Amino acid sequence: MNVKIEVKNLNVWYGDNYVLKNITMKIPEKEVVAIIGPSGCGKSTFLMTLNRLIDLANGARVKGKVLLDGEDIYNPGIDLCELRKRVGMVFQKPNPLPKSIYENIVYGPKIHGIKDRKRLNRIVEDCLRIVGLWDEVRNRLKASAFELSVGQQQRLCIARALAVKPEVLLMDEPCSALDPPTTRKIEELIHKLKKSYTVVVVTHNMQQAARISDNTAFLYLGNLIEYAPADEIFTKPENKLTKDYIKGRFG
Asked: Which distant-in-sequence residues (6+ apart) come within 8 Å of 169 by Cβ?
């Protein structure tokens, strides 16, 4: 197993609120890891520590290590712009920029110095094809991204994240605002993405976690209760708390 991200003794506080407690886990390269657990257990906070978006949270304090390809992203002198290029993020609610479909996708590549129009055109087509949007929008790339349906906007946001060629994609409940057919499209897309990317998905939907993930982590009250291959977590969990959560006894 090639480890892409290794988390060592990770602790997070918001002010006096102790949110993540001594989390240690390894995230394999080019696999899907699902993070499950009840609301308020620290899932989204954990995700934000993996590309240091946590730095933007008011009063957040982080102790511990997050190694990306063996390098601690919390070392002083880390280039955050480069880090967030390597570790992209897709949020719960689609958040397209107030620009055209085309400009949404080229926004990141332009920031990182790509100016050649032909190259930008290719990036737009490639990324829209990956997320299955190209045929739906190819004739209206100049239209506002806000003209798209919610499901199309979410796929556009994934395409935008892919445009800077990340190595890791973080997804925070990417299907929670979507209808079942669009959810199925996003799940199929996640399966496809893991051929090229490491994917970490926070989801409140345990059936979804079972469908999409290679490995699943169960968080409860800021503690990592269990982390194992998905089929083990969902068929024979070792921890009683995990078993009770999966059977719907709380949460």
From this structure: 87, 88, 89, 90, 158, 161, 162, 193, 197, 198, 199, 200
Amino acid letter for position 58:
N
Count CB-CB contacts under 10 A for residue 36: 29
Contacts (Cβ under 8 Å, ≥6 apart) of 249: none
Beta bridge mates, 25? 7
The alpha carbon torsion through 29, 77, 18, 199 (nearest 10 deg) reads: -20
pLDDT surpasses 80 at 251: no
- For residues 205-220, one letter each, b for 16 or more C-beta atoms within 10 angstroms of the residue's C-beta and e for the rest, the string is bbebbbbbbebbbbbb
Cβ–Cβ < 8 Å for 175, 207: no
Enter the tokens of residue 230. Answer: 């998905």
Which tens digits make up the pLDDT trace of 56-91? 999 999 999 999 999 999 999 999 999 999 999 999
Give the Cα separation of 157 and 163 in Å (integer): 10
Determine the pLDDT at residue 113: 93
pLDDT, position 65 = 98
- Domain locations along the chain: 3-246
For domain 3-246, give the fold. Rossmann fold (3.40.50)
Phi-psi map region of 247: left, alpha, beta (phi>0 left; psi -120 to 50 alpha) = alpha
- pTM listed for this prediction: 0.95
